[in-house]
Amino acid sequence: MSTALYQHFPILAVMVLFLGAFLIVIFGNVKTLRHLIALLSVTVSLGLLIALVKPVMLEGEIIAYWMGARATAGGYAIGIAMEVDALSLFFGLLVATAVFVSCVYSIQYMSHDDNVGQYYTLFLMLAGGVMGLVLSGDLFNMFIMVEILTFAAVALTAFRNTAKGALEAAFKYLVVGCIGSTCILTGTVMLYAQAHTLNFAQLSALLPGNMNTATVVAFALLYIGFSTKAFIVPFHPLAADAHGAAPASISVLISGVLTKSGLYAIIRLSYFLFQTMELGTMQFLLVFMGSMSMFICVTMALAQHDFKRLLAFHSISQIGYVLTAVGLCTAMGVSSGLYHAMNHTLFKGLLFLAAGAVLHQTGTTDLDKLGGLSKKMPWTTAFFLVGAFSISGIPPFNGFASKWMVYQSIYLKAVESGNIGFLFATIIALVTSVLTLASFVKVSQSVFFGRLPKEYENVTEVPWGMRLAMCLFAVLCVVTGLFPDLVTRYLTQPAADAVFNASGYINAMMGSGYAESVMSVPAMAPAVTYVEVGVWQPVSWLLILVITLLAITIVAIGGQYDRVSESVSAPMDSKYDLFFGGEESVYSQVGGEDLFWGFKHNWRGYFSFMHKLHSGIVNDYSLWAVVALALVTLYMLIVF
Amino acid sequence: MILFNYVASFFLIVLGFYTIVTKYNLVKTVIGLSIADYGVNLLIISIGFNPGGTAPIFTPGEIDPSAFFVDPIPQALTLTSIVIGACVTAMSLALVMKIHEQYGTIDTREVRRLRG
């Protein structure tokens, strides 16, 4: 094993975040110092991971790092290990980017709150927890990191504890999150009892092919435990509550980072630890849960009145896409799923930051009260539209590229396997995309366009620091949308290759030849061809978009646009009031609620059923968790 | 009897989940979380137990292949898990206190302003 300097980078990237958290406890009372420490730690962490791109992503090296130089003895891993392959690094980069942008945004966003020192401590603990989880090579360490990030996330959800429902959301999250954590710990120790190791690589070598009842139950426990961290159905109400109450900068982390850690763990479990993804039954489980998440959450989002709560449901809906694509067990499926995971972090982060900007300037996120903010906050509106176009999958933004690949991979899987179920999944994915667009039309209509309410006439644009953060995400959204071929070649394809390289992962940790000696080597997936993905030209779509925007601008400036509206509003002079009735309001605003009333009316049975189901009682949500655990355990016991 | 430990630990975990699902008092929910946690701790410590083994404390050179001791790793895991359990209890009780201040009740059926 070479001892290049970059071998130490993963542990440093985690440590620098925790170190920053502890330093802020000491020096956090000084404003500039705490901003400096927070920015410095997230920047260093991001820089260290970017430095790893060349050896890990491009040259395909897998870094195995033993703490305190304790490695293997007698064929058993006895030290605590970190292992970084392209998959870990991919998620690590997502985490570091989202944390960096959120930190930049926080500086001005949190300036009106008190106890900001504690906010940054928890912020960095959360970041460090997720970073530690994705870079860890040890199952128990993953559990510790899960606990750290759950605690930090719960505390941050309740940070503005005077906000509506913040405490309630935090408590629900804590209860169901702890059920998940208990499941993870139980699964971990059951695996330890069977294999006498906690090392991920060694477990991945020992477990496949040696499944018994105990390991199957452990798999179900771990799967459900990490599902609560990814908030997939039936754990989505927690995400909605937590997002609605948490500060926007934390919503970015919960949606962009926390859910990704759950997804990462599910990928590691099913592709590495148990290597069961080649079974159709396992693919069915992931695709089923993904499709359910997609559809249920997007319909729940349509019925929301709160900006951030709506975004939260969309967030889980998009996670459903990722889970479905990853569950296909094809190279293209995994690659497109990871691509969408990356885009989800970017556009969802952008949308939450825009929602936070609206909250920061107006003091509310209620869709029924807002309106017409585009005149007062043009920058925020522009950034929001970039995010909305991306999530709705409009070319040339990044959501289109990844969603297209997801549809394509599900459809190809349906054709290859001849399984009608995958066709349904394709249809659900398409319908979900349409409904996503519909609900973002509603949001932009009721927040940024339409009539400006009287009380918001003095609203101003957000400070530059918050605009800078939104700008970073917006630029990344456009760039990753314009160059899908580069993104797949340098980011998602190495990560997808790593997913199918379990034996390489094991050998890097345990010494070469270990995987072959202990286990029958899993079949390598065929190299994926991206020919069909590259047929569309994102740059030409960008040109069309620019030309359209220019045309609209010219028409608007040329006055054609204004003259029409002037002639309508001209006779509204107070001297004519006499001739009209008592009603003052001539202009009637179409509220966000009324925009899709026809659709919602036709589906009223479904919507009222779902509304009743999401009762807000913590017992119900716990019951869902326990029932999901029981069903998944039963399913796995039957199929294995 | 080690089998009894396993049965008891899973009984405790299930009892904890049952408490969380069926009790409408927030403090009882917290108690349920703790019971489930104790169940897991009992499970971990039982896994590492070797009947007749000594405590796993050795100085370098003292250890030889004939030494028979309990597995030290689960004990370390249990300690960590106990600490985390204490944190969960402390934090959730703090939240319950604040909820009582704001809502004036600790009945879960009334703490449901966020729904739908």
Tags for this entry?
A: mainly alpha; B: 116 residues; mainly alpha; Helix Hairpins; 3 helices
List the helices and strands and how they pair.
The complex is a heterodimer of chains A (640) and B (116).
Chain A: H1 9-27, H2 31-51, H3 53-58, E1 63-66, E2 72-73, E3 76-77, E4 81-84, H4 86-109, H5 116-135, H6 139-157, H7 166-195, H8 200-206, H9 213-230, H10 236-245, H11 248-273, H12 280-302, H13 307-326, H14 331-362, H15 378-392, H16 398-417, H17 420-448, H18 464-482, H19 484-499, H20 502-510, H21 514-518, H22 538-558, H23 560-569, H24 597-602, H25 604-613, H26 618-639
Antiparallel strand pairs in A: 1-4, 2-3
Helix pairs in contact in A: 1-2, 1-5, 2-4, 4-5, 4-11, 4-14, 4-18, 4-19, 5-6, 5-11, 6-7, 7-9, 7-10, 7-26, 8-20, 9-11, 9-26, 10-11, 10-13, 11-13, 11-14, 12-13, 12-17, 13-14, 13-16, 13-17, 14-15, 14-16, 14-18, 14-19, 15-17, 15-18, 16-17, 16-18
Chain B: H1 2-22, H2 26-47, H3 72-103
Helix pairs in contact in B: 1-2, 2-3
Structure description:
The complex is a heterodimer of chains A (640) and B (116). By secondary structure, chain A is mainly α. Chain A has one domain. Chain A has 26 helices and 4 strands. In chain A, the strands form 2 sheets. A two-stranded antiparallel sheet of chain A has the order 1-4. A two-stranded antiparallel sheet of chain A has the order 2-3. In chain A, strand 2 (72-73) and strand 3 (76-77) form a beta hairpin. In chain A, helix 7 packs antiparallel against helix 9 (213-230) and helix 14 runs antiparallel to helix 16 (398-417). The longest helix of chain A has 32 residues, at 331-362. Chain A is globular, with a radius of gyration of 25 Å. The two termini of chain A are 38 Å apart. Chain B is mainly alpha-helical. Chain B has a single domain (2-51, 72-103), classed as Helix Hairpins, CATH 1.10.287.3510. The longest helix of chain B is centred in the C-terminal third of the chain and has 32 residues, at 72-103. The model of chain B has no long low-confidence stretch (mean pLDDT 89). Chains A and B meet through helix 6, helix 7, helix 10 and helix 26 of A and helix 1, helix 2 and helix 3 of B.
